[in-house]
Specification:
With 218 residues, the protein is an alpha/beta fold. Helix content is 35%, strand content 17%. A five-stranded mixed beta sheet has the order 5-4-3-7-8, with helices on one face. Strand 4, helix 4 and strand 5 form a beta-alpha-beta unit. The longest helix has 26 residues. InterPro entries: AhpC/TSA, PRX-like1, Thioredoxin-like_sf, Thioredoxin_domain. This is AhpC/TSA family protein.
Length: 218
């Protein structure tokens, strides 16, 4: 009987050890894993305004665009090959929809200490080189992209003004072929904005953003 009690005690102690190990393992997850689970906006949420520095040195907010019907907010950057592939298409989106009330607002979310190519001066040079027709803002302190839930560059959030609020209507990729614009068969952002302009329901409200991970200081 004594041996049986000893075995039971050992078994219970083993369970306690396993439980303790599991809890400790969970608490010791790397910080970057915890950051990656931060919840951003979902379709239907209200997106709060921001005030970020543009490449011309001026501060820009969504509230500055008094006549806008909404916005095509795109988190993008200089260095990412995916972002570079989409630059011309982003310019075309702005040229097509700005006059219809949906301007592009580009935001660079990357920490320049991690990726020097995404520094402020480099942003100015890239915008001039490519002829950006839209604001190219820097997310200093990386406070805005987590609110939105952006995880890639590029990552798009189409907003619509409703009763003074900016409501999220679409989240995800620009289209379904980053590599070759001639092979695109699904124009996600264009379809979303076209539907909003017509007062129609969006057929696609969320897709998976394809691009580089956002660079965060460890």
């Amino acid at each position: 009987m004594k041996n049986m009690k000893t075995l039971i005690a050992a078994f219970i102690a083993g369970l306690g050890l396993l439980s303790f190990t599991a809890v400790n393992h969970d608490k010791n997850k790397p910080q970057k894993e915890i950051i990656s689970t931060v919840k951003g906006y979902e379709v239907g949420d209200e997106a709060t305004d921001f005030k970020l520095k543009n490449i011309d040195g001026k501060m820009v907010s969504l509230s500055d665009f008094k006549t806008a019907k909404g916005f095509i907010v795109i988190f993008t950057c200089n260095h990412c090959p995916y972002a570079k592939k989409y630059e011309d298409r982003i310019i075309e989106l702005d040229k097509k929809y700005k006059s219809q009330g949906y301007p592009v607002i580009a935001i660079n979310p990357n920490d320049p200490n991690v990726q020097p190519e995404d520094g402020y001066q480099q942003m100015i040079e890239r915008a001039k080189q490519k002829g950006f027709t839209f604001p190219y803002l820097v997310d200093e302190g990386q406070k805005i992209y987590p609110q939105y839930g952006a995880t890639k560059t590029p990552h798009v959030f189409v907003l619509q003004k409703q009763n003074g609020k900016n409501i999220v209507k679409y989240i995800g990729a620009i289209d379904n072929n980053y590599d070759n614009p001639n092979d695109v068969s699904e124009y996600y952002v264009q379809n979303a904005v076209n539907a909003l302009l017509k007062g129609e329901l969006l057929k696609m409200t969320k897709t998976v953003a394809i691009g580089c991970t956002i660079k965060v200081k460890k």
